[in-house]
Design a protein that fits this description.
3 helices, mainly alpha, 145 residues
Length: 145
């Protein structure tokens, strides 16, 4: 029986998965920060230009503050959501990579120790399906000898 979502072991090979998560999440944060900075500079420059053209207008300053609050809220909310979704996606993708590698490593270790190899199945959505098929065929072929 498969464990429930909260009690699953999400990280198979922690070093690889943490380094990939750090890489992609840090890039996501940097890109979001750059977009936020450019957008806020554009908004501020636009309102400064409007104020310069129309004179010191209190309504424009209030509108600028309201738009800034909306942009801040949107970037905080959607940025946080994007980082969470990116992190979860990275875990799923790295599991599709690390899971088969972990199983292949166990099978090769059994081969090196001259034990009977336990043919472990990999999930249908995992990567390296062709490699798995070739490895299984090789093991079965050599067992006959």
């Amino acid at each position: 029986m498969r464990p429930s979502f909260l009690f699953r072991k999400f990280l198979i090979h922690k070093n690889v998965q943490f380094s990939l998560m750090f890489y992609f999440l840090s890039n996501t944060v940097i890109i979001l920060a750059a977009i936020y900075f450019c957008l806020s500079v554009m908004i501020t420059n636009s309102f400064e230009e409007f104020i310069r053209i129309t004179g010191n207008n209190i309504q424009l300053e209030q509108l600028h503050m309201q738009i800034t609050k909306i942009v801040n809220f949107a970037f905080f909310t959607f940025g946080t959501l994007g980082i969470i979704i990116t992190g979860y996606s990275i875990i799923i993708i790295t599991n599709r990579i690390s899971g088969p590698i972990f199983r292949f490593q166990k099978m090769l270790q059994e081969l090196n120790e001259n034990k009977n190899v336990t043919l472990r199945q990999i999930r249908k959505d995992d990567f390296f399906q062709e490699f798995y098929t070739n490895l299984i065929n090789y093991i079965k072929k050599n067992e006959k000898r």
